[in-house]
């Protein structure tokens, strides 16, 4: 695990070095770098004033060039370097550029306003000065469990594919909101990739046109430079730990995307995020096949009406012909209405599968969520749809280990 300590204070850095030597994770002492904040941040960001987009247009992706410092797994910032609001803006830009990097802040005085600024800037933990070794080490252990390739076996994020058995079933809506629940409630690093390359609309679920930047085409086009920094810089932010890579706007760009490019994109994404969700059109071609092949789980979304059932049957047959095991397929019945719909048991029997989950219909809250560009989980937490979405996120995460986030603890105390 590579750690960079950013501090102008040699004594503090030395104290940190001593604490880090006790870390159970392999922390190579030479990876503990001590450096002043402003020099370091401008080296990392390349172009301190511009947006990631402008930086790229100027030929600087913000990635490590010959003179740029190495990107660590964990950055420990000395709060003394961050007196101005502008410095917090820099930290926010840093965490936006490098969502896969964990940032800690060291602070003598942990007032609520500082903690709020820290949280907004994407800082994961605020640690005390003077250093408390146990506090530092347990925070590092938590960070270590989030970093790919640090724990045994090389961690890889889960790739989850969402596909509608019939248009309008809610595949995009569910992918976007399950992604939101994984990020907001489980503190996971989540990436939603809109692979509905021609008609992708995932970005409308969260962002206005103005906020959308980058696209799948933009990332894969720069194959030789395709790395975590480029990927992060091409995404739009929904939450500090939830990013969206939109579909290309231009149909020609969409048509030029090749299956091998999608394969590389997903592999890169899985190495850098805990969960990679993609939304894809149901018509299967070489490109969508390469994504579906790589998925750890596929969620076909259907409604319980006759035409949907027929299409679900066709989709199931197609997936079986492709050699996908039933355990990879998780059919979800969306917009279910117990009073109006046909009972589900006979449908399951007819298809020869068990449904993974059933999501109730809640037209008002779902429409409000889409119209306001806000996740239903946030907008209407008590909606039965939000409950069902949270239930799926809980199930995907399994044991809820990382619930006790420092900011939630703070709020509880306040
Ligand atoms: N459980 C639900 N209850 C009510 N409306 C829903 C539900 N799920 C999705 N919707 C609505 O269905 C619309 C279409 O969903 P969308 O995800 O775009 O479909 P798809 O991607 O499958 O074509 C959304 O705008 C949303 O308002
Ligand atoms: Mg869709």
For this entry, give a set of tags.
single chain, 414 residues, alpha/beta, Rossmann fold, 2 domains, elongated, binds magnesium ion
Question: Could you provide a short overview of the structure?
Answer:
The chain has 414 residues and is of the alpha/beta class. Helix content is 43%, strand content 15%.
Which residue ranges are poorly predicted, with pLDDT under 50 across at least 5 consecutive positions? 47-66, 149-154, 399-403
Please give the number of β-strands.
Answer: 13
Category from helices, strands and their pairing: alpha/beta
Q: What characterizes the major β-sheet?
A: 8 strands, mixed
For CATH, the homologous superfamily of the largest domain is named as: P-loop containing nucleotide triphosphate hydrolases
Question: Which topology of the largest domain does CATH recognise?
Answer: Rossmann fold
Termini, distance in Å?
34 Å
Task: Name the beta content range.
Answer: 15-25%
Helices, by number, come to: 18
Q: Any ligands, ions or cofactors bound here, and which?
A: adenosine-5'-diphosphate, magnesium ion
The main sheet orders its strands as 8-9-7-10-6-11-12-13
The CATH architecture designation of the largest domain is 3-Layer(aba) Sandwich
The radius of gyration is 22 Å
CATH class of the largest domain: Alpha Beta
Write the layout of secondary structure elements.
Layout lengths: L2 E4 L3 H11 L12 E3 L1 H9 L6 H6 L16 E5 L6 H13 L4 E6 L4 H9 L4 E4 L4 H14 L11 E7 L6 H16 L3 E5 L21 H6 L6 H7 L1 E4 L2 E4 L5 H5 L3 H14 L2 E6 L5 H9 L2 E6 L3 H16 L10 E5 L7 H8 L5 E4 L2 H10 L3 H4 L4 H14 L8 H8 L1
Parallel strand pairs: 1-2, 1-3, 3-4, 4-5, 6-10, 6-11, 7-9, 7-10, 11-12, 12-13
Antiparallel strand pairs: 8-9
Helix pairs in contact: 2-4, 7-17, 11-12
The site of adenosine-5'-diphosphate has 19 residues, from helix 7, strand 12 and helix 15.
